[in-house]
Amino acid sequence: MTTNNQNNIVHMELKNGTVIIKLRPDLAPLAAERIRVLAEKGFYDGTPFHRVIEGFMAQGGDPSGTGTKGSDLPDLPAEFTKEESFRRGMIGMARTMDPNSANSQFFIMFADAPHLNGQYTIVGEVTQGMELVDQIKRGGGANGMVNDPDRIIKMSVVAE
To answer: Residue limits of the PPIase cyclophilin-type domain (predicted)?
Structure first.
């Protein structure tokens, strides 16, 4: 695990511009390290925002676009926090019903969602470009799955 926290800024290039994300290893060191490692490997490049629910969140990080896959790395233990709340622009780690199943998928909040507090891991927050996140194509139906979804063009780590 990286102990130097100088590389906690991630640039996520979308079709309309670049979103700047600050990872929060102070809240979730394992999850922040996972996002950093996968971004450095190019894992997220070209991956879709497969599940996008208006007024809630945009979920990505699954190369298959089904919401059922992750990276080849082992799943992470839950790092739930009480210090922060799920609010607009926060980034959480997606998981199955098993709290210890986060891997590569993440979601970006369109709006506050206090019902997620203490149930999911906060891994970062959008510091610039939330208006670009707001432009991500929405899905339909109750599950928010997107046909022909918008994709992350490139995700890279930069020094603070």
So the answer is: 6-160
